[in-house]
Amino acid sequence: MEGPAAAAAAVSTLSALAVFVSTVDRGAVRSAHGYRVAGKGGGCGWERWVEREFAFTPTSAREVPLPNDAQRLLPADWRGRPVYREGQIVGPWRCILAFDFVAAVAPPPVPPPLLCSFRNPRLMCVPSLYNDLTKVFQFQKLEEKVPELVQCDSDEKMTTSDAKDRVSVKQEAGSDTDEHPQFGEDLLASAEKQRRAHREYIASITLNDISQYFHLPIREASRSLKIGLSILKKKCREYGIPRWPHRKLKSLDALINDLEFVIDEETERDGVKQEDHGENEKENQDAIKALAKRKRMLETEKATIQQKPTLDLMDETKQFRQYVFKRKFRAKTLVCG
Questions:
Q1: Using CB atoms within 10 A as the burial measure, which of 150, 207, 210, 287 is most buried?
Q2: CA distance 139 to 30
Q3: CA 167 distance to own-chain centroid
Q4: How many CA atoms lie within 13 A of 297 on its CB side?
Q5: What is the maximum span of the chain, computed from C-alpha positions, in angstroms?
Q6: pLDDT tens-digit map of 270-293
């Protein structure tokens, strides 16, 4: 492992996150991310803010470049430390989620529907936003409290009384009734109409069809394929997939995002310090090249696992991931302290 490169890839810790929706452009989402970055020796030396924009469609989502002429959440001439609040208006943007560890701004107990992974699977398509949201909300724990209403792996239909009971449980788990007043009724109607998928359709599902959803949790993949969870697991066993590869791909995405973040920072620092520290220019460039090489290796490994989901992560990747976890834990401990 490259010592300087590996150390540089593990210094950022999320300290603030604000998500805004556009009041004029349906489907446009803007976010501001604050990161505490540890300096040499593990001390938290400085803070980094990043602004991103996303375009959500009914079927997908993607990160888009920030328009040059658009009003920014983080203006170029801003000073101090920005603090956002839920409901805040910044130009055409309205804040729907605010979290700030430093300013003691706590997030809501339940994320808005747009930012729920199990209610909006499109989030998986934008890991730069999704990964930070998972640090603020424990989606997996929240999902365990919300029972599945529209999937039925048995041959019998869900009865109306069972559906009503489950809808009441889901509402207790924190569904946003203000934004979706008919959400419970819609789920109840779907539960009453849902039947087992046709055997012909199940038999027609190929490995290529399944592989398109490896980036999603297995529950979300079964919803997208419109089959039950147990049926999807059975199809995976038929194709020799003993374990759903979402966690491996998610882990690789997180490492790639961290490396991209550090490469950008090291490139900016190298440009600033070239005049004052010309003797260190070659060392900085070597570190950037090492980071870029590591990033290419991870991207290649991710593409390979998508094609062959039975493969495990390489030992070198596991060691690098463990090193990153330790560095982040130490940095987080210093922030909390």
A1: 287
A2: 21
A3: 27
A4: 16
A5: 75
A6: 665 555 555 567 777 777 788 888
Q: What is the pLDDT of residue 151?
A: 40
Residue 37: its H or E element: strand 28-38
Give the residue extent of every domain in the chain.
11-140
Sheet holding 44-56, edge to edge: 61-64, 44-56, 28-38, 12-22, 93-100, 89-90
Gap between the Cα atoms of 254 and 246, Å rounded: 12
Alpha carbon 223 to its chain centroid, in Å, reads 19
- Give the contacts of 245 (CB within 8 A, at least 6 positions apart): 214, 305, 306, 309
Q: Kindly report the backbone phi and psi dihedral angles of residue 82, in degrees, each rounded to the nearest multiple of 5, phi listed first.
A: -70, 145
**Tokens (6 digits) for 136:** 């603020």
DSSP lists the bridge partners of residue 100 as 16, 105
Residue tagged 């992560």 (tokens): 313
Per the structure block, which two tokens stand in for 25? 């452009």
Dist CA 337 CA 332 (whole Å): 8
Report residue 229 as tokens.
């969870």
Q: What span, in angstroms and rounded, lies between the C-alpha atoms of 254 and 240?
A: 26
- Which tokens sit at 259? 């490396």
- The interaxial angle of helices 246-273 and 315-336, nearest 10 deg, is 70
Q: Residue 106 contacts by C-beta under 8 Å, 6 or more apart in sequence?
A: 99
